[in-house]
Amino acid sequence: MASHSIPAPGHSEPLGHHDAHHEEHWFLKYCWSVDHKMIAKQYMITGLFMAIIGGFFAYVFRWQLAFPNEPVPLFGVVTPASYNMMITQHGTIMIFYVAMPLLLAAFGNYLIPLMVGADDMVFPRLNRASYQVFLISCIILIWSFFVPGGGFGGAWTSYPPLSASASYNLTPSGSTLWLLAVALEFVAFLMGGINFIVTAMNARAPGMKFEDVPMAVWMIVIASIMFMMSVGPLFAGSVLLLMDQNFGTHFFDPRTGGDPVLWQHLFWFFGHPEVYVVLLPALGFMAEILPVFSRKKLFGYRTLLYSSIGTACLSFFVWAHHQFIAGIDPRMANVFAATTVLISIPIAEMMFVFIATLYGSAIQFTVPMLWALSFLAEFLVGGVTGIFLGASGADIHFHDTYFVLAHFHYTFFPIAIIGSFAGLTYWFPKMFGRHLNEFWGKVHFWITVISFNFIWMPLFFTGIMGDHRRIYSFTNFPDLMTPDRVLLREISSVATAIMGLAQLIFFANFFYSMYRGRKAEANPYNANTLEWQCPSPPPHGNFAEMPTVYRAPYEYSHPDRETDFWPQHEPPAGAGALKPEGAH
Amino acid sequence: MAEHRPSPDSEGSGWQPLARSVFFTTTLGAIIVVSVVLFYIFSGGEDYIARLIPALSSYAGDIDHLILLIAALVGFWFFAALFAFFVLLFKYRARPGHKASYLATHEHQLETWIAWPHWLVIACDLVIIVVAVKVWHMVKQVAPPPDTTVRIIAQQWSWTFRHPGPDNKLDTADDIVTIDRLHVPVNKVVHFQLRSKDVLHDFAVPVFRLKQDAVPGRTITGWFKPTRAGAWDIQCAEICGIGHGLMPARLFVETPEQHAAFLDAGAKSAQLPGGQPIY
Amino acid sequence: MSGQIIATGRSAAGMPTGKLAVWMVIASEIPIFGGFLAPYLMHRVGHPDWGQMAASLNVWIGTFNTALLVTSSLFAMLAHAAAERGNGPLAAARLRLAAYGGLIFLCIKAYEWYTKISHGHVPQSGTFYGYYFSATGLHGIHILAGVAILLAIASQAEKGKHLGRVELIGIYWHFVDVVWFFLFHIFYIIR
Ligand code: HEA
Ligand code: HEA
Ligand code: CUA
Ligand SMILES: [Cu+2]
């Protein structure tokens, strides 16, 4: 199999030991554990479950858009109310309950302690609490679909006055529960983020200097910091909005000194950094996967690090590009157009770094590698189309058209779905001690990626041709019912159904391999980073004796070694002499 | 050697060929970009978008130009990046007898190769920003003096259009009020006063490349100048509740005589001050 | 749990883990309060008429409360000093004094709210009061939490346990104090 084409002479002995298996009650083991790996899996399963709901909604309203006003298979007739509710919940779920839990929480929890050579998070109980709060917020969200009046349908951006008063949105309890769920989710991720940051800063193994920290950890930490810095105002905003909804205050009500646009500022001040909060971890995974399967050192570790920090800083000054035509002072748009377009520079550099990493490498097209490579190609599309929107003049036409949707699905899908798949398939052997099935993995990869492009490429054009968002049926617009537009929509919707079905392959492969898959040794890919140096799956406590770090994480194919990898913890020749410097 | 601790970007052999190739591709890139821009400037670019959706306002063409300029600039980078990407994928696929090389760069070496695309991207960004701001300024920050002014009032879930009557003044007895149908004269500068009664709405006319949110409690003015007679869709482009998909309106761009007919028809029906809705 | 929690004791960044965490908590709280204060200030500039409403707040009570919190966090500092010298009981006593300061603050705040509400100045009666009640309310919750933690840590410190935590709660308590300082100025002082 490709991933093992390289023999591993001088195979580094796993450090772990297996005697940590004292039998616990299943509830303690699976639901009340403080082990970061178990909590990571809880987040992962919850995220996958929510992804199914969000994906199902996507299928339903896509079908409605292509074949309006006829019952959708497996669902039924889509009313305007249920349509709005479904797109709103789809957006909310996919971002806050799929992207965040999978990329940040699941992998952050799983990887950070393993990659920095720690036995657990520094605050295991806080960690458990974080998941439990998250779970409650999931339950509240799903509950809100079934309350009288139905789930909230005011879009994931939840602009007041629509969201502020039941007399406008007609979902008296749905809107409040939605807001409550999202606010709780923020609390959960604040707790988690503090844990990530402190663990990565303080619990690093001796010898692990800042530049020995694997990119994935860096990226997740930077993302957590961004989240911490940006979510506060929106949290305050949601408290104000909750009061407007339930206690009759008028923070966002123009008639009594309030200001509806204020919410937009609070939301997007968080909302834009948020998109990089999910982008960075995904890039982090790429930085782990590409070097391993191209047996090549990551090109320009520092460039990648600095440009991600640059992106993080710049992202706090672009938020109003979502509000160009929202009635803000038109002069403001000029400033934000400039900052927005300039953010392409750090991100371009990251892309160049990844592409340059391939130069002079030996690429093995394993399933994780395929996901990682497709991420680069697909994200480029989403990225460059962002520039069209950042150019204020062009955004007059594009705002709230399907062009915007296509733009951010070309960013979000690579990040949340492709990125998660890349991470899952790459770390699966470590997580479950078994290998996924290569063949079915590739089948699933190709169907998903191809159908994805068939979903979203056409919608760029319907967007340019004037299809606007959040319209439950275009039949009311003569100009929008031309045959070409209808055809494009139908292509997209059929592709969505196909993609949905393709996920069954993944889930079958996932759960089958979890129990029946080929057993995986500690370091199946001959990787350098620390998580591969303890047994798969790692016992509670991860490392038998704590590792010491001697070098940077991406030393592949080093000329003066017979093996093509060089684990971070492997003592240099004549080790005894050289005693590890403690981290500063 | 093994003792010494390679920094993440420690010197390696063999970065020069990469730097050289990057240097050439990017200088080549520079030339291509410049020529693409020149080509685009001298070719009536807007037609490409107009083929997808007619461009029927005085500034629609400029917005289409902007869109195509961006397409040319980022398009170059996009294809250049993908080209390099796939070439590398093919050239360096793992195969018997092919071994990865240990190559990494040190800061100053990194600069030599990253600097080029870097500065080029900045150059492209600046071009984009300048043109974007120019177009934006023309559409949203300044407006030619109005030939006529209409008031647009959005509400859940319909549009109310208040046309100045024959006297061409708003808020006079002969105003013509219509629901979901806006009548404007062709080739005249029309100013609109956009208001909302309840929640956010958005007055969007794709064929004009025009879009503007309606914010309750404010009157937002904007302008357009239709360039061809006809009937087109008006969409609400900001979610405003259950009926958001159900508030389409129709825009009638009328020749002088058509418009005159509309005006005195309305004037006749407008007995009360404020006029009565005609459907 | 397996008995070998080692790494959590590390401090690779050179700062005790607990302290680092407290700073992180504060770092994430600042934007939250910022989210209340920035919009308030923006509106305040736009609405001169809010001046009269602000005038209805009792500056003397506010001043007294400020002094109260300052002394309270002074005691928190002294408690830290005591804890440094390993004197648990003294630290506990001072922590309790700090906590009582917080409690009195809350009582006075409650009285203030009561008078406002009885004069019909409720959150619904204007955006100014909306901000006033929500911001001071959120701050009040922080005081409440702070008091609880102070007392909890005091009872540990009394038995000489976890003396390190005395400093941590001190940092948090100072932060809450500083927040009040801002609230006091932008709600009571500026006209
Ligand atoms: C993770 C998700 C993600 C990411 C990474 C991005 C990245 C970017 N986004 Fe996107 N965006 C969203 C998610 C995302 N966005 C979402 C969800 C919305 C809609 C929210 C809603 O309304 O519901 C949105 C909406 C949105 C808007 C508002 C549109 C509107 O509503 O009118 C704008 C406008 O400026 C914008 C711009 C950008 C830009 C400039 C980038 C940049 O970061 C892209 C930079 C990357 C590149 C440019 C590619 C790499 C660079 C090169 C190949 C070099 C060559 C490039 C040049 C020479 C320029 N986005
Ligand atoms: C992470 C973000 C994300 C993702 C992945 C998607 C994925 C998809 N979205 Fe989504 N979408 C949003 C975020 C996302 N969307 C947001 C924020 C909005 C705006 C909402 C609003 O306007 O308020 C939106 C709105 C939106 C609209 C506009 C509705 C409207 O305005 O009228 C449409 C319409 O076609 C759409 C379709 C789709 C489709 C077909 C997919 C498909 O590409 C994907 C379908 C998914 C599946 C079929 C299965 C998913 C995967 C699994 C089940 C496996 C899980 C395992 C792992 C991930 C490891 N989306
Ligand atoms: Cu009115 Cu949407
Ligand atoms: Cu954005």
Question: Can you describe what's shown?
Answer:
With 584 residues, chain A is mostly helical. Chain A has helices at 26-30, 36-66, 80-115, 124-144, 166-169, 172-202, 215-247, 260-294, 301-314, 330-342, 344-357, 367-390, 392-398, 402-432, 438-464, 483-516. In chain A, helix 2 (36-66) runs antiparallel to helix 16. The N and C termini of chain B lie far apart (88 Å). By secondary structure, chain B is α+β, with helices and mostly antiparallel strands. Chain C has 6 helices and no strands. Chain C is elongated and about 55 Å long. Chain C has helices at 17-46, 50-55, 59-84, 88-118, 127-158, 164-189. In chain C, helix 3 runs antiparallel to helix 6. Chains in contact: A-B, A-C. Chains A and B meet through helix 3, helix 8, helix 9, helix 10 and helix 11 of A and helix 3, helix 4, strand 7 and strand 9 of B. The site of one heme-A has 34 residues of chain A, from helix 2, helix 3, helix 14, helix 15 and helix 16.
Question: Any key phrases for this structure?
Answer:
heterotrimer, A: 584 residues, mainly alpha, 16 helices, 62% helix, 0% strand, disordered C terminus, B: 279 residues, alpha+beta, 5-stranded mixed sheet, 5 helices, binds heme-A, binds dinuclear copper ion, binds copper (II) ion
The sequence of SSEs of chain B as H and E is: HHHHEEEEEEEEEEH
Q: Tell me the radius of gyration of chain B.
A: 28 Å
Shape of chain B: elongated
Radius of gyration of CA atoms of chain A, rounded to a whole number: 24 Å
Low-pLDDT segments of chain A: 1-21, 575-584
Kindly state the percentage of residues in helix of chain B: 40-55%
Distance between the termini of chain B: 88 Å
What order do the helices and strands come in, and which of them pair?
The complex is a heterotrimer of chains A (584), B (279) and C (191).
Chain A: H1 26-30, H2 36-66, H3 80-115, H4 124-144, H5 166-169, H6 172-202, H7 215-247, H8 260-294, H9 301-314, H10 330-342, H11 344-357, H12 367-390, H13 392-398, H14 402-432, H15 438-464, H16 483-516
Helix pairs in contact in A: 2-3, 2-4, 2-16, 3-6, 3-7, 3-8, 3-14, 4-6, 6-7, 7-8, 7-9, 8-12, 8-14, 9-11, 11-12, 12-14, 12-15, 14-15, 15-16
Chain B: H1 15-42, H2 47-52, H3 60-91, H4 107-141, E1 148-155, E2 158-163, E3 176-179, E4 181-185, E5 190-196, E6 201-205, E7 210-214, E8 220-224, E9 230-236, E10 249-254, H5 256-269
Parallel strand pairs in B: 1-5, 4-10
Antiparallel strand pairs in B: 1-2, 2-3, 5-8, 6-7, 6-9, 9-10
Chain C: H1 17-46, H2 50-55, H3 59-84, H4 88-118, H5 127-158, H6 164-189
